[in-house]
Amino acid sequence: MAENSLSRLAAEFKNFLAAQDEDEFIATAAATPAAVSVASVQPQEPAQTAVPPMPEGETLTVEFPRARAREQAAAPAPVQAPAAKETFSPQQDPVLMNTAQKTAALSELADTIKNCSRCPLGATRINAVPGEGNVDADLMFIGEGPGFDEDRQGRPFVGRAGQLLDKMIAAMGLKREQVFIANIAKCHPMTDPLHPEKHGNDRAPNAGEIACCRKYLEQQIAVICPKYIVALGGVSAKALISDAKSLGALRGRFYDLSLDSVKLPRPVKILATFHPAALLRNPGWKKDAWIDLQMVMAELGLKGASK
Q1: What is the pLDDT of residues 136-171, one digit of tens each?
Q2: In this predicted structure, which of 18-22, 25-29, 52-56, 132-136 has the lowest mean pLDDT?
Q3: In what order do the strands lie in the sheet with 255-256?
Q4: 3-state SS class at 139
Q5: What are phi and psi of 230, to 5 degrees?
Q6: Which of these, 207, 195, 168, lies nearest to 297 by C-alpha position?
């Protein structure tokens, strides 16, 4: 019933509008139960019976697009509030810390490292080995990971390889206390983690272990911010130098250090050389390692140990 009423009413309006300009009629059919009167309309067709009343609850809307467009054009444009001035909070460039700030930051980081269990090495180590040395050092040495002796003492490079590193540092005209020494991995990577008491149970850290420790090392570097870093061995060199090739291809030049998780307060240069443990196995490489260290000495103005 409702559909028939609407159809008939729509037909009447269609005939009406066909003879008139729609701009002259801006009207809307109200949703009321009252009858819609068309008595004043002079239809071109023979008179028809009265339009039945619109069923209650039904609504018919007549749209006049051109009139609506004219109304919209005549209406004043809405006033838009001025856009809020965009504000920026630029990231401040990191600044060099003073000695007290560095000491506190490294101490806090060391505590975090000692309680770290992000990778399986945390479950098999005896001691974590954060690193040690002069917080204001211009020179930093970074190896690959702690070994048997380091695991027991919680200090980096204290075994046979560490003793050789001490001699290398002394040959440069420095003391161990004047540099900072750390490793890529902070816990002892073992070939047989079920037997940590075994000697010769060392291995290089794998990619996952390096990834877990990398942020710790990068924070240490950013705090100390040395002028130069010596990467000891291929594992350390490839982890820190973006142009990751073989150690032989990386040696002989300085690289600009770029870290993943932190921004450095000033540029840091890095140079790759042999790990002291490799020099113990291959003494013939010591001459080449000394050439690498002399490059650093020249940059830092070091004359070497007095004879």
Answers
A1: 999 999 999 999 999 999 999 999 999 999 999 999
A2: 25-29
A3: 132-133, 180-183, 139-143, 228-232, 269-273, 255-256
A4: strand
A5: -110, 115
A6: 168
Strand-pair category, 255-256 with 180-183: unpaired
Q: How many residues does the chain have?
A: 307
Tell me the C-alpha distance between 286 and 266, whole Å.
Answer: 31
Backbone torsions φ then ψ of 142, nearest 5 degrees: -130, 120
| Residues 166 and 254 reside in one and the same domain | yes
DSSP class per residue in 179-225: SEEEESSSS--BSSTT-TT-TT-B----HHHHHHHHHHHHHHHHHH-
Are residues 124 and 194 part of one domain? yes
Provide the token pair at 115. 């309680």
* Residue 81 resides in a domain: no
In a shared domain, residues 199 and 275 = yes
- 16 is in which domain, residue-wise? 1-30+50-60
d(CA 6, CA 61) in angstroms, rounded, equals 11
Which tokens is 29 given? 């059919």
**Residue whose tokens read 């794998």:** 206
Count of domains for the chain: 2
Handedness of CA 222, 223, 228, 229 (dihedral sign): negative
The three-class DSSP label of residue 254 is coil
Helix, strand, or coil here: 7?
helix
Closest of 143, 140, 145 to residue 127, by C-alpha: 145
User: CA-CA distance, 68 to 74, in Å (whole number)?
Assistant: 10
